[in-house]
């Protein structure tokens, strides 16, 4: 991943944040995650590792992000656990018939603290 993708202060911060997502998923025994606005999929990889085969629904409004994310999913060997969808995350969520153990809102990155 390139520096343009790093939102947090350093790669270590990004790693620490992502491993906490993984820990949360494992601790609560999550089997399904709906991720809203994942961009290139870094956090999606950690969710996929946590929930196993049941999987993660990845969403992003930009097909270019989705294509790049798919390459990272392949490299991380978690592609089979991730279903990608493009479009408005709220609209895509409203179309889902299943319940999710975790719904992770990663859309509004401009307002991160």
Task: Extract low-pLDDT stretches.
Answer: 1-8
Outline, from the CA principal axes? globular
Query: By CATH's scheme, which homologous superfamily of the domain at 31-106 applies?
Result: Vaccinia Virus protein VP39
Biggest β-sheet description? 4 strands, parallel
Number of strands: 4
Note the total helix count: 4
CATH architectural label of the domain at 31-106: 3-Layer(aba) Sandwich
Mean pLDDT: 87
Model description:
With 113 residues, the protein is an alpha/beta fold. The chain has a domain at 31-106: Rossmann fold, CATH 3.40.50. Helices cover 41% and strands 16% of the residues. The protein contains four helices and four strands; from the N terminus they run αβαβαβαβ. It has helices spanning 11-27, 42-51, 63-75, 89-94, and strands at 33-36, 56-60, 82-86, 102-105. α3 (63-75) links the parallel β2 (56-60) and β3 (82-86). α1 (11-27) packs parallel to α2. The protein is globular and about 30 Å long.
């Amino acid at each position: 991943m390139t520096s343009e993708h790093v939102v947090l202060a350093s790669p270590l911060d990004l790693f620490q944040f992502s491993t906490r997502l993984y820990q949360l998923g494992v601790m609560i025994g999550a089997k399904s995650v709906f991720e809203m606005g994942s961009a290139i999929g870094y956090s999606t990889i950690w969710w996929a590792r946590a929930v196993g085969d049941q999987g993660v629904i990845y969403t992003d409004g930009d097909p270019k992000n989705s294509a790049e994310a798919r390459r990272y999913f392949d490299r991380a060997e978690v592609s089979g656990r991730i279903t990608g969808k493009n479009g408005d995350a709220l609209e895509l969520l409203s179309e889902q018939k299943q319940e999710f153990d975790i719904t992770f809102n990663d859309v509004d990155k401009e307002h991160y603290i």
